[in-house]
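Response to reviewer comment R2.3. The reviewers asked that we include at least one raw input/output pair. We reproduce the pair for CASP-like protein here without editing.
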Amino acid sequence: MDKVEQQPNSEVAVQKSVSRGFVIAQFVLRILIIVFTVVAVAVMATSGVTLSFFGVKFGAHYYDSSAFKFLMAADIIVGVLALFSMLVSIYFVYRKPSNSTHLYCLFLHDLILTMLMISACGAATSIGYVGMYGQPQSAWFKICDRVGKFCFRMGVSVGFSYATFLCLLALTVMTSYKLRKA
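Raw output as returned:
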């Protein structure tokens, strides 16, 4: 009889540890998202380079390209909303028992941020590719051989943005899995 009573308690302990593991993973991934977006924005904002050719100044800055401005805006939006969602999810974890409605809202939130991030990363990557290799058919010449520091820093920023995307993708998959089990 003691074994029968102990079995439900052990199942409850397993469910609590799974929930605790889920919450910790969510918290860590959201912290990583915030850190990655802050680094991506900081690197991009300081990536400007100005050169002088025969007395004519030539500059390369992120705000010269709509794709890089889009990535900057997406990084800022995702970072702020990740902080907001982290605070809200902490509130729901400690104040109310989690239910499928909270998880579904969290899933939709993460899914929208994931789509925003991958679209911004894709746009910045395509412009970065043109800057790196050019597009001779369209008379777009490569510029990275002239402004290597700018291209390197933009590559680092885009890399951190892709890391943000991967964290968001992991959050989306985790939340959808948890929803499926709920």
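Strands lie at 49-53, 56-60. The helical segments are 2-45, 66-95, 100-133, 148-181. Further pairs are available on request from the corresponding author.
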